[in-house]
């Protein structure tokens, strides 16, 4: 397949502001990407375009071999899992965790179609795989941030997505919950049914070995993209964030030291 996931010259303009400008990006099967950029650089907008929740002002988007404009986006969205605050904010606090996981099958918030008998069995299995089996009798609203994030990943996984979009999945997690969630992502990346993962994060520590490529966004433009080894370099990260950033790599993980001058 020539183009599996690709953006060609994609721009997105709202309120006369160019939020994304001339974005080119190619994702090959088997690659997992991280998107890095300062607040407001356009990361979430980019993910929403990929998932078909927004339409580009200009340019061409192909996702999972389907060209936008020539495909049924509702069908395509069923193959894409989404984990992030944009979704989390819409979930009613009284929602039961197993219903939440099953709702992923229909790419809806709440269940408006009759689930198959097998769906709840699958939901229980996923809850177990993601370490949520102890909280399945509690309403969503009382769960901790870490528990909510795991449920959202289970929800995204129920329809075996080919593309899993993770918009800051570790936001609000304590050190232990964050590391557990990152290990879950690593295990997902190593599984035989692994989806392609695209992760937005602000922290290099969250880039697990399963992530192979990095896309740097600055002010809505692609600053650089390529393999982790090519892109996670002090000069490029300093340029991305407009501040002196030193990238330190150890045992397949990364972190940063930031220097303020003046
Ligand atoms: N509908 C809109 N109208 C006008 N501006 C918008 C609209 N949607 C997003 N923006 C602006 O576009 C810019 C990019 O937003 P986006 O949420 O994609 O950034 P981000 O890189 O994900 O930021 P953060 O790291 O803070 O989450 C922001 O400055 C935002 O205010």
From TrEMBL:
UniProt cross-references to SUPFAM superfamilies, sorted A to Z: P-loop containing nucleoside triphosphate hydrolases
Protein name: ABC transporter related
Pfam families: ABC_tran (PF00005)
InterPro entries in the cross-refs: AAA+_ATPase, ABC_transporter-like_ATP-bd, ABC_transporter-like_CS, ABC_transpr_CbiO/EcfA_su, ECF_ABC_transporter_ATP-bd, P-loop_NTPase
Lineage: Bacteria, Pseudomonadati, Thermodesulfobacteriota, Syntrophobacteria, Syntrophobacterales
Superkingdom of origin organism: Bacteria
Database matches in SMART domains: AAA (SM00382)
GO molecular-function term, one example from the UniProt record: ATPase-coupled transmembrane transporter activity
Domain ABC transporter as annotated: residue spans: 5-244
């Amino acid at each position: 397949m020539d183009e599996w996931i690709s953006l060609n010259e994609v721009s997105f303009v709202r309120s006369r502001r160019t939020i994304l400008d001339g974005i080119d990006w190619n994702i090959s099967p088997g690659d997992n990407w991280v998107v890095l950029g300062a607040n407001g650089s356009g990361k979430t907008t980019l993910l929403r375009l990929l998932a078909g929740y927004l339409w580009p002002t200009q340019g061409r988007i192909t996702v999972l071999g389907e060209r936008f404009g020539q495909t049924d986006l509702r069908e395509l969205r069923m193959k894409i899992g989404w984990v992030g605050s944009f979704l989390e904010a819409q979930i009613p606090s009284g929602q039961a965790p197993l219903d939440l996981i099953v709702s992923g099958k229909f790419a809806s918030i709440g269940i408006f179609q009759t689930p198959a008998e097998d769906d709840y069995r699958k939901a229980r299995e996923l809850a177990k795989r993601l370490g949520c089996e102890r909280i399945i009798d509690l309403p969503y609203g009382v769960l901790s941030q870490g528990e909510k994030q795991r449920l959202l990943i289970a929800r995204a996984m129920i329809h075996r997505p080919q593309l899993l979009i993770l918009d800051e999945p570790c936001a609000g997690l304590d050190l232990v919950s964050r590391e557990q969630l990152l290990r879950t992502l690593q295990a997902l990346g190593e599984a035989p049914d692994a989806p392609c993962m695209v992760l937005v994060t602000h922290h290099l520590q969250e880039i697990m070995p399963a992530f192979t490529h990095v896309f740097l966004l600055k002010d809505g433009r692609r600053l650089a993209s390529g393999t982790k080894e090519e892109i996670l370099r002090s000069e490029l990260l300093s340029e991305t964030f407009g501040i002196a950033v030193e990238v330190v790599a150890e045992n397949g993980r990364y972190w940063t030291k930031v220097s303020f001058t003046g």
